[in-house]
Amino acid sequence: MSPVWTWRLDEGSCTGCGICRDVCPEEAIRQTRDMGLPEPVPGACTGCGSCVAQCPFDAIMIRPVTRRDAS
Ligand code: SF4
Ligand code: SF4
């Protein structure tokens, strides 16, 4: 069974540019306002890495979900 993935931000580096949201093929990244910090859509990330590759500021990171995250 493949791991479930999630992502997190370095909020100090993120500019809210929205590129990660636009490149995510799973709609796992949402922004509730223009230039606001992106938020995760629970359970949607497949760990494809596109957001990490495309972020101009190295502000987004992915990792497998652990049991601790789920509790
Ligand atoms: S691409 Fe990077 S800087 Fe832009 S909103 Fe996403 S995480 Fe923030
Ligand atoms: S790793 Fe892929 S699926 Fe997950 S948030 Fe980034 S672009 Fe979307």
Description:
- The mean pLDDT is 91.
- The chain has 71 residues and is of the alpha+beta class.
- A hairpin with an 8-residue loop joins strand 2 and strand 3.
- Helices cover 20% and strands 20% of the residues.
- The protein has one domain (5-70): Alpha-Beta Plaits, CATH 3.30.70.
- Bound molecules: iron/sulfur cluster (SF4) (2 copies).
- The site of one iron/sulfur cluster has 15 residues, from strand 1 and helix 2.
- One iron/sulfur cluster (SF4) binds next to helix 1.
- Please give the domain count: 1
The class by helix and strand makeup works out as alpha+beta
What's the alpha carbon Rg, rounded to whole Å?
12 Å
Mean pLDDT: 91
Just give the CATH class: Alpha Beta
Strand content: 15-25%
Spell out the helices and strands N to C.
EHEEHEH
User: Using DSSP, what is the number of strands?
Assistant: 4
Briefly characterize the structure:
With 71 residues, the chain is α+β, with helices and mostly antiparallel strands.
Q: Secondary-structure blueprint of this entry?
A:
Blueprint: E1 5-9, H1 19-23, E2 29-30, E3 39-40, H2 50-54, E4 60-64, H3 67-70
Antiparallel strand pairs: 1-4, 2-3
Bound molecules: iron/sulfur cluster (SF4) (2 copies).
